[in-house]
Amino acid sequence: MSAPKISVVIPVYNSAKYLRECLDSVCNQSYTDWEIIAVDDGSPDESPAILDEYAARDSRIRVIHKANGGVSAARNDGLAAATGGYVLFVDSDDWLAQDALLQYADATSDGRVDVVITDHWNWFDNGTEKQYSFFAQNFLTDDKSIIRDVQRTVFYKGYSPYPSASCSYMFSALWSKLIRRNLLVDNGIQFSKTLKLYEDGLVALQVFQFAKMVCYKKVPTYHYRILNNSLCHLNEAKLVSDCSCIINEIQSFLNDYDKECTLKDAFLARVLFLTKKMALRSFFCKGCEGSFARRYKSYRNLLSQDPYCSAVKSVPSLKLIGNEKLYGKMLHLHLSFLTALMYDIRSKLKG
């Protein structure tokens, strides 16, 4: 039996509520040369039984049952078991459009393309969806400078080679990218088991480092589910620690592959974005513990440390857009107190 063209790797943990919709969206694809590698990450709910049920029904579905080790370990196990020429990572609470794999297969029909990028919808709990386009136009390129700009976009969308007004901040996610399996395997690309955030982004940076031919199709293929119960990071120290881990791993990557510092500005834009994320979800969000004075002092202390301090100093040269443009300008003008006060008042009004 020949290997399938596309391996769909699905890490699964406590996803019983949405899992059938996810699996059905692959099983009902108009393109049929695929396999599913579903990794049950020690789910205590009905997910393992659902996976076994689908595997018994379709020989293209393989299930790995393992002790809980986190989403990165599950993806690594799925990748190790995959046999397809290309790999697509899908989250178990999301689902694919019916022609998603056909779109990918068409783009890789001549075997030259290493990565195919497509667009997505955000699906909300009220049943509405919003479509996003990562880039303004289709492209197929082996131009290293354009691929470098695509890599910069993983850090921050202001560095896009073809800016799109509807580009979301989810370009770092891998569910929008079909990747040649050998590109991952031959270069030893694995998901970091230490990161709790941006583990997709770190892999995407490595993927575009080694990709020689990249294709973008301006067509949505993925339904990304936005859940109202997503966590607001009220644990200030934990979020700061998570962001520090992200920065450390990215800096290690840059030390290895960006000797000429061509990614530096895009990286600093990402760092500034992270400070805003921490401000909104940790220091000045609804339910934060401690006085405003204590929280502001912690926020100021963060901004005084590198690379956060360097990001603020570099604001005039960064390609900031949208809310980050005003946020960065205020910090650069030493208006961090006003920024913090504005965010704190906004959190109380929203409550």
Descriptive tags:
alpha/beta, 13 helices, 10-stranded mixed beta sheet, 351 residues, 10 strands
Short description:
Helix content is about 45%, strand content about 15%.
Give me the number of helical elements: 13
Rg calculated over all Cα atoms:
21 Å
Helical proportion, percent range:
40-55%
**What is the N-to-C succession of helices and strands?**
EHEHEHEEHEEEHEHHEHHHHHH
Shape: globular
Low-confidence stretches: 230-234
Assign the structural class, choosing from mainly alpha, mainly beta, alpha/beta, alpha+beta, or little secondary structure. Answer: alpha/beta
- Can you count the beta strands? 10
Query: How far do the termini sit from each other?
Result: 58 Å
Strand content: 15-25%
Largest sheet, described in full?
10 strands, mixed
Roughly what is the average pLDDT, rounded to an integer?
A: 94
Helix/strand layout:
Layout: E1 6-12, H1 16-27, E2 34-41, H2 47-57, E3 61-66, H3 71-81, E4 86-89, E5 95-96, H4 100-107, E6 115-124, E7 129-132, E8 139-141, H5 144-155, E9 177-180, H6 181-186, H7 199-210, E10 214-226, H8 236-257, H9 264-283, H10 292-303, H11 308-313, H12 322-332, H13 336-350
Parallel strand pairs: 1-2, 1-4, 2-3, 6-10
Antiparallel strand pairs: 4-9, 5-10, 6-7, 6-9, 8-10
Structural features, described:
The N and C termini lie far apart (58 Å). The protein has helices at 16-27, 47-57, 71-81, 100-107, 144-155, 181-186, 199-210, 236-257, 264-283, 292-303, 308-313, 322-332, 336-350, and strands spanning 6-12, 34-41, 61-66, 86-89, 95-96, 115-124, 129-132, 139-141, 177-180, 214-226. Helices cover 45% and strands 17% of the residues. It is α/β, with parallel strands linked by helices and 351 residues long. The chain is globular, with a radius of gyration of 21 Å. Helix 7 (199-210) packs parallel to helix 8 (236-257) and helix 10 (292-303) crosses helix 13. The chain is built from 13 helices and 10 strands. Helix 2 links the parallel strand 2 and strand 3. Strands 1, 2, 3, 4, 5, 6, 7, 8, 9 and 10 form a 10-stranded mixed beta sheet that branches.
